[in-house]
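User: I'll paste a sequence; please echo it back and then give the predicted structure.

Assistant: Echoing your sequence first, then the prediction.
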Amino acid sequence: MSCGHPHETPCSEVLQLVYEYLDGELDTQIVARISQHLDECKDCLTEYDLDVVLKALVRRSCGGDCAPVELRERIVLKIREVRVQLG
């Protein structure tokens, strides 16, 4: 996905890292770049907002159970693969 506007950090990179961003798993330099991009790009901000809602829905539905690390890694990998195919 790309909004068609030039950004310091490309839309595709932001969208690939959105779940790590939401989970606080990125270093401060990358967080700053993604935050700046989201401030500038309404398309990516819309996608980010959807991901926030999805994450909250999953959290509520799972009753606080933690998924195994391997499952999370497989899910993140699959999300990245789908985004690359759509991008």
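The mean pLDDT is 86. The chain is about 70% helix and 0% strand.
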